[in-house]
Each structure stands twice: as C-alpha cells, then as structure tokens.
Specification:
Radius of gyration: 22 Å
Structural class: alpha+beta
Helix content: 25-40%
Strand order of the largest sheet: 4-7-8
Number of strands: 17
Number of helices: 18
Bound molecules: alpha-D-glucopyranose
Strand content: 5-15%
Distance between the termini: 12 Å
C-alpha cells in the first residue's frame, strides 16, 4: 500500500478556503474518515458489538434532549461482553468490584473514589484522598452504568468546596480555584463528618491544580449530556462556579498569547518536569472546558459577558494552537531552516526559536506520516516532547482539525513501540536523562528516566487513547491497546504506572489498586463496546470557526 504523507501545512488566514464540511468527524460519519495503512483496515462490524450506533443529532448541544434517556440502558456494562462475543471478560467484573471498593461516602452518600486502595503500601501519602482529575474516569464509568448519583454528589460537593478559604501562608488563592483533592474528616467523639479540601496548599511544591476547574466543567457537561438533566448545570450555584473558574483564565493581564501561562506541576504531572509556560495538557483542557462552558452558560445576567469573552478567546486560541503548536515532518523541516532575529509582523519564526535547540531525537522520531502538538511553545522555547493526555484531548475536543487528528493517530501507529510498547500509554516521550534530568526535574528521584512522569506508562491514559481511536474511526487500534493492558493489569494488581522504555516493569513506587487505572480500563472497554458513549466527552468540529489549515499539495499523493 502506498504511504501517504499526512502533513498539514500552515496557512495564513487569507489562504484558507477549504470546505471542511465533508470531514466533520463528530457525526456518525466520523467512523468513515479516510485512513491509509492503519490497524483498522478491518471494519467496525468485525468488532460485532451488540450496540447499534445511536444517532447523535444535536450532538454538540448540551441542552438537547438526552441521547440516553434514563432507564434506556439495561446496565450492559456491569456484566460486560468481550467485544460482543464470548461472554463477560473476567477482568470487567474484577474491575467493577475494585472500583466499588474505592467509593468514598460522606454522610452516607457516595461522593467520589479514593485515589488508591493499596493496603500493602506502608505510606499512604495523599492517596487516601478523592482527587478531582482521578475521579473523572470513575465518573464516566458510573455514568455509563447508569449510576449517576455519585457524579452529581461529587460535582455538588466540590462546588461547595470552591468557596472554602484557600490560603498558602498569608496569600489567598483566587475564588475560582478548585481543589486538587479532598478527604472526609471523621470526628468519632462528636460523631461528625466534614470535607477537607487541598487547593495546593499541602501539595508538593505548593502548586494549585489548574486542571481541576477544567475537569469539573468537562464532567458537568458529561453528566448533563448523559442524563439529560439540565437542572444541575442551570442551577445558580453551578453557573456561578463556572463563572468563577473562567474568571481566573479570562481576565486581562500582560498576555500576548491566548494560551494560559502556568507553573510547573499544575496538572496530572504534579511535580517539576519542565512543563512551566504553556503546557499542551492545560491548553487542550482549557480549550475543551471553554467549549463545554459555552454550551452550559446561560446568556442572562453576567453569563452574557462570559459567553462573549469565551467566543473571542476560542477564536484566538484555536488559531494559535493549530498553527504554532503543530509539528509534522514538513513543519519540522521549516523550523530546522528558520532564520532568527526576525522583527516585524511578517516574521516567520514568530517566537525566535533557534534551530540549534531542536533535540537530535526528534529528527529520528518524526515519521513522514503523522504529527502531534508540541509539549510547550513560548519565546525561544519549543518543548518537542510528545504528551499523551494533551494530544488525545485535542482530538476529543476537536481542537485538532480533522487532518491533524488523523495525523496524531498515524503517529501513534507509526511509533507504537515507543508510545504504547507493552503497556498503554506513555505519559510523555522521550524521557529526560542525565544532565537534562538533573537540571529540569531538580534531580527528582521519583522522576528518573522512563519512570513515573518522566516517560512512564500510565494505564489510566487508555480511556483517552480509546476515545481518540473511536473518534478517528480506529477501533482496532483501541482493541489492540486494551488487550495489551488486559494481559497485565489484574495480574499486577492495577498499578498506577509502569516503568521502562517499553513499559514492561511495574513502576518503582507505583501504588497498587490505583483507582484511575481500574476506571480507565472500564471506560475504555465500555466505549469500545458502545462507541456512542463517546458523545459524553467528545466535541464536534466547530464549524462557524474559520479553519486555519489547508491541505498540503501532497495530501492526495
Ligand atoms: C500523583 C499523580 C497525580 C494524581 C495523584 C493521585 O500525584 O501525579 O496526577 O492525581 O497521584 O492519583
């Protein structure tokens, strides 16, 4: 089969007139996107799952009637079918049992899931808490199983925690900050229970979690989309919570870019790893949260102003990300030939990136077919590392154009050994080593090469990979990844992460029975069995927005 370059070249707005309408990927036709030489030359029907694709008309409006009327499900996932045949996979029941053991109750109501139920580990650290980001896959699993109360309770409890006093020494955090985690404090003498939140004041490095607020908005939309219950998102409390979160990101400052400036350790990678600046994980979640909020904010009162600001920001953010963060073979070659010290508006090398700063590995890594969003872009700095979460979210949220989404998946296929190896999925690639590790991580002994956040493999990322696979019409690729995970996860006791270039070793300090490893697996499996569940988390290509890409001449070659 002929190899096809999927490079997407950059274009000025004047050059743009591609009709993308036939490439819209968030409709049922999304499964028919053109693909070449992929694992997925087998068709969807070969997966022979029993669920028909529901027609998701009104896909991108959270206020439309629910695609899943309550009671419409007969909880197919509690039992699980092995991709439609052969009865339940033994892992599914085990996973549900383990997930249920992680449920945290507050005044007899389920409010979240604990990060890890690892009785063997002597150190609990903060793994006895409910983390906002960790709860997302749990929440999706519960929603898909028609257990919606725990998700609603979680959203309401964290909303109330937002208004707790947040101090780091004598400094008060912004009103919109959402907690990284919370726990239930039980006073046995008084027989009382209180929720205690951590906004970063006790986290390593005292960093506030920028991703928490975004995940909260994304989860609120998933809940609304799934249940069809708009009363929660329309309640004054939820409207205010969203506005406070957005206020932190949309207020004017000294910014020259529409991306969000962040400090290191403010997201899933919550230790120093050289992601300060404009990390892809935060930019992709920011974009997705803005689009979710746009669907849920009411235009009355203060909402109107926010809706306007979001629209302007999305326009600028989309342009910036699709142009300056995108890297493929063609763009790498452009950067390699960049001139420096260019002034004026006509500068091509807008951030004055010095070509000598391109790391050697990227020339070998970059296939002719495929591309990805860079880890970070700021003045004279491009982080060429590939990050899994950010890239998957760009696909799911449609921040990536349809061509870019295809290219991201092509790259994962081309670089399967490096990025998936024996355990899906590397958190980032490649690892920092030696001098670079010393300088960038501050000699962090937990983040040594190919371990933990530094090139470790995280089973939780399986659900995001699966969502991206389904959206781009590559179910076989997701199936292959899920089967890899299945061969190890239960046997190894659901570790938090794996180590090594191929992800073969259970992580040095990995917790066992890590809840998001369990939930991530369940969500991945459920999504593959019923791809229409993707609608909870997926955004449609934003048609009114001007596409900023044109097809390269080699597209049809
Ligand atoms: C680690 C991870 C973080 C996660 C937490 C709880 O700190 O880096 O992303 O939320 O553990 O699982």
């Amino acid at each position: 089969m002929k190899r096809v370059s999927s490079h997407v070249s950059l274009a000025s707005e004047a050059e743009i007139n591609l009709d993308l309408s036939r490439l819209i990927i968030d409709r049922p036709q999304r499964f028919t996107l053109e693909r070449k030489r992929s694992f997925d030359e087998q068709s969807w029907s070969e997966l022979s799952h029993s669920h028909s694709h529901r027609n998701n008309d009104g896909f991108d409006s959270v206020l439309q009637s629910p695609a899943f009327p309550s009671g419409g499900f007969d909880s197919p996932f509690s039992t699980g079918t092995h991709f439609g045949g052969g009865g339940p996979h033994p892992l599914v029941n085990e996973a549900w049992e383990a997930l249920r053991k992680s449920v945290v109750y507050f005044r007899e109501q389920p409010v979240g899931t604990i990060a890890a139920v690892d009785h063997a580990s002597e150190e609990v650290l903060n793994y006895d808490q409910v983390f906002v980001r960790d709860f997302v896959p749990s929440a999706l699993a519960f929603l898909m199983n028609n257990e919606t109360d725990i998700v609603k309770n979680f959203l309401l409890k964290t909303l109330h925690l937002q208004s707790s006093e947040k101090m780091v020494d004598r400094f008060k955090l912004g009103a919109g900050a959402m907690p990284a985690s919370f726990k239930v404090d039980r006073n046995k003498n008084r027989n009382t229970e209180t929720l205690v939140a951590d906004f970063g004041e006790s986290a390593i490095g005292r960093v506030a979690p920028v991703d928490s607020g975004f995940w909260w908005i994304i989860l609120l939309r998933a809940y609304t989309k799934y249940t069809g219950d708009v009363s929660l998102s329309e309640s004054p409390d939820c409207q205010k919570c969203m506005r406070l979160i957005l206020n932190l990101c949309l207020s004017e400052g000294f910014d020259t870019f529409p991306t969000l400036l962040c400090t290191d350790g403010c997201s899933m990678i919550d230790r120093r790893m050289g992601i300060y600046g404009y990390p892809i994980e935060i930019q992709a979640l920011f974009y997705m949260a803005l689009r979710c909020a746009l669907q849920m904010l009411k235009p009355e009162g203060e909402g109107k102003d926010f809706i306007e600001k979001i629209g302007q920001r999305l326009h600028a953010l989309t342009y910036h990300m699709r142009n300056y963060f995108w890297l493929d073979f063609h763009q790498l070659n452009n950067i390699y030939r960049y001139k420096t010290e260019e002034y004026s508006h006509t500068a091509v090398n807008k951030f004055n990136v010095i070509p000598d700063s391109i790391p050697d590995w990227v020339f070998d890594f970059m296939p002719c077919r495929g591309g990805y969003f860079l880890g970070n872009v700021s003045p004279a700095m491009m982080d060429f590392r590939w990050f899994a979460l950010g890239n998957c979210i760009t696909i799911v949220s449609s921040l990536a154009t349809p061509e870019q989404s295809v290219a991201i998946m092509d790259l994962i296929e081309e670089k399967w050994d490096e990025l998936v190896g024996e355990m899906p999925l590397k958190i980032c690639y490649p690892a920092l080593e030696n001098h670079e590790w010393r300088i960038i991580t501050g000699c962090d002994p937990k983040n040594t090469r190919w371990s933990y956040h530094n090139g470790g493999s995280w089973p939780v990322l399986l659900w995001l990979l699966t969502a991206a696979c389904i959206k781009t019409g590559r179910p076989q690729m997701a199936k292959r990844a899920i089967e890899l995970a299945e061969s190890r996860l239960l046997k190894d006791g659901w570790p938090e992460y794996y180590d090594g270039k191929l992800g073969r070793f259970v992580g040095k300090q990995a917790r066992k029975f890590q809840t998001w490893s369990i939930a991530g697996y369940l969500v991945a499996r459920m999504m593959l069995e019923d791809p229409s569940t993707l609608m909870m988390i997926s955004m449609e290509e934003d048609r009114p927005m001007k596409p900023t890409m044109r097809r390269s001449a080699s597209w049809n070659a």
